[in-house]
Amino acid sequence: YMAKEARSGVEFYVAERDRNSPERLSLLGDLRRAIDGAELDLHYQPKVALQDGRVEGVEALLRWWHPVRGPVSPGEFIPLAEQSYLMRELTQYVIAKALDQAARWWHSGLEIPISVNVSARDLLDSGLPDQLSAGLARYSLPANAIHLEVTERILMTDQAYSADTIRTLAALGVPLALDDFGTGYSTLVRLQRLQVDEVKIDASFVRKLGESADDERIVRSIIDLVRSLGLRAVAEGVESADIAAQLRGMGCHAGQGWWLAEPMPAEEAVVWLRSRLRLPMATSRVD
Ligand code: C2E
Ligand code: MG
Ligand code: MG
Ligand code: MG
User: Fold this and answer.
1) Which residue is closest in CA terms to ligand 1's atom 45?
2) Do strands 55-66 and 146-151 pair parallel, antiparallel, or not at all (unpaired)?
3) Of 208, 206, 141, nearest in space to 173 by CA
4) Would the CB of 223 count as within 6 Å of ligand 1?
5) Atom number in ligand 1 closest to CA 179
6) Which residue windows are coiled coil (predicted)?
7) What is the SS3 assignment for 115-130?
8) Distance CA 247, CA 50 (A)
9) Is 126 within 8 Å of 164 (Cβ atoms)?
10) Which residue among 29, 61, 105, 229 is buried most deeply as judged by most CB within 10 Å?
């Protein structure tokens, strides 16, 4: 457990140290321009109930196709954006795009919630709940058409402000998941106080289930903890049938991962979703 914490600590340190390097600044400039252009897109990864295979929702994951570099991973550009005012614009873009997609799907009978990742900084933005409620109303969508995911690390900083926004979102009825659980430092008390509905167990623990007895113990105890608080446990990084079976045995509610389904562009996701839900294909084009 310590090793994992140390590992993410190291990544954070490297990102901090290099925050003003010319390469990072130029990437940030490119990202600023990309927000208004066609280089950004959302892919959608299904979240699947482990007991019966039911599709519970999809997670929207940002994709950037840089004109020179090709694909740039969100693992690279999100931390960069988080250190600047750009994160707010990026989140607004993602929420607008997810709402638009949700409207197309929900109004064609595909009532699949879309989960959007937001960063700690977004929770300091009191405009976020307003943007969401206005967007949901404009598209005539129920509050649970959009879910939010925030990483566990938000618990560490700016707790009071985040708690305000989280309360407003909960009052709106927008479900909230705590992402990357196990990589931060939450205590049981904090977890209980936060109004989250779902806890997503970080892929770094899940991927080695079956190989590492330590990871197995960690995942099992997280699932027990989450269930005992009356919350839903979702595993990230389900890369094999064996891992899915183990998680099911441990009472984990749902999973995401390459073995279940990869993140897909909207037009592929809709085909996947319709085939899984065995709904008749819409007569009008839906993407
Ligand atoms: P996350 O929210 O924890 O998303 C899960 C990540 O795991 C995604 O990486 C997904 O592609 C990847 N993944 C899915 N299945 C598997 C699997 O079976 N094994 C493994 N090892 N990985 C799997 P991705 O798309 O590269 O995104 C990385 C992170 O970037 C996300 O982690 C999230 O924190 C952040 N991110 C992505 N899109 C957005 C966004 O629109 N807004 C914000 N604020 N953050 C975003
Ligand atoms: Mg997430
Ligand atoms: Mg995660
Ligand atoms: Mg992550």
Assistant:
1) 117
2) unpaired
3) 141
4) no
5) 3
6) none
7) EEECCHHHHCCCHHHH
8) 8
9) yes
10) 105
Cβ(236) to ligand 1 under 6 A? yes
What would the mean pLDDT of 21-32 be, rounded to a whole number?
A: 88
> How many other C-beta atoms lie within 10 A of the C-beta of residue 38?
7
Q: In this structure, what token pair is assigned to residue 159?
A: 């707790």
How close is the Cα of 61 to the center of ligand 1, in Å?
A: 6
The Cα 219–Cα 235 span in angstroms is 9
**Ligand 1 pocket check for 179: Cβ under 6 Å:** yes
**CB of 115 closer than 6 angstroms to any ligand 1 atom:** no
Q: HSE of 129 in the Cβ direction (CA atoms, 13 Å)?
A: 18
Phi-psi region of 119 (alpha: psi -120 to 50; beta: other; left: phi over 0): beta
Alpha carbon distances (Å) from 103 to 22, 106, 287: 40, 5, 10
What's the DSSP call for residue 206?
Answer: H
Q: Name the closest-CA residue to atom 24, ligand 1.
A: 74
